[in-house]
Give the backbone structure.
Amino acid sequence: MHNGKFGCALWGCGWVASGHIAAYLKNPDCRFIGLGSRRKESAQAKIAEFALHDVTLYNSFEEILNDPRVDIVSICTPNDLHAEEAILAAKAGKQIFLEKPAAISEEQLDRLTATIEEYHTKTVMGLVLRFNPLSCMQRRLIGEGELGKILLTNVDYWFGRERGSWMREGKRTGGAFVLGGCHSVDLAGFLLNSKIAAVRGTALQAGDWYDYPPVETAQVRFANGAVGVFSCSLAGFTPYTANIHIIGEEGTILNDRFFLKRFREQQSFFQVDTGVKKTGDVYGHPFPQIVDHFISCLKEDRDSEHNVASAVNSHKACFAICRSAATDGNWIEL
C-alpha cells in the first residue's frame, strides 16, 4: 500500500477488462497503477477508453509482478492462461482478482489451489452473478428456510453470438460450460449452499464456428439431495439469458418471481425488482461490488468467501459435464 491505497494493475485487455478497470477507478481505496496485454494496442485502447493518465503500460506480465507498487493484480487473459498466471502472481506475493474460469482442467485447478494455499494468497473470482442483489436475496431466503427442502434446481446460460479469436478453440476455452455456463453452474451451488455431487452431460455440435460443441446440457445431483438440469448454449439466435429456477417444499423461485407458502393468499408468482440488469455487457455487471468487497477483505486481512477455493466444486462440475458429454454420457461423481 502507498498513502493508504492499494496499488492495482491489470493484465489482459479484452472486453471484460473494462469492468475491472472501471471498478478500480471507482473505489477510493484503490490506486490504478497500470495495465498490460499480449497485444500492446489492446492496452493502449483501454488507456484511451478511460482517459487514463500517469499509468504504467506494462510490456509483460513479469513487469507487473516485479512492480513493488502493485498489491492487487487482475488477470483477464484467455481461459487457458488464467491458472498459470495466477500461480506466478501468488508466488510474487500479489493478491489476485481472477476472471472466470480459474482453470480449464482439474490438473491446472489443483496446482493453482495448492499454490494459493502455500503462499497464503488472497483471491476473489469474477463470478459476477454471486454479487447481483437478486442472487443475494435468493440465497438469504433459501438460507432462512423460506423454500423449505429444495427438490429441483434448473439453470440456463444462453448467449448466442460469434465469439472470436481464442474463444473458438476448445483447447483454450475448456468447453461451453467452462467458458460461459460456469456462471450459472456456480450460482446454483452458491444459492443452495450445497456442493454438486454428480453430473452427466450431453453435447451438440451446432455449426462450424466453434471447434467444440457450443451446446451442452447436464443432469445434476446435489449433496443436499436436490436434483437439477443445467443447459448452456453459446450458439443460436438468443440474447443473454441466465435463468435460475428452484423448487422447494415451501416455495418456488423463477428468476425474480417468487411463490412462497408463507403468503398463502397469493394466487400466482409475485415479482421483486432489485434493479438487476439482464445483460451480458460487462458495464452492467457488478464489478464495483466485487472490488469493494475484496478491498474490505484486504483491509481486514482476511480472505474472501468468494475466493478460488469457493469455486472449485463448480469448476470441477463443468469439467465433468464436458468429459461426460464427450464420452459415454455416464454419471461422474465429484
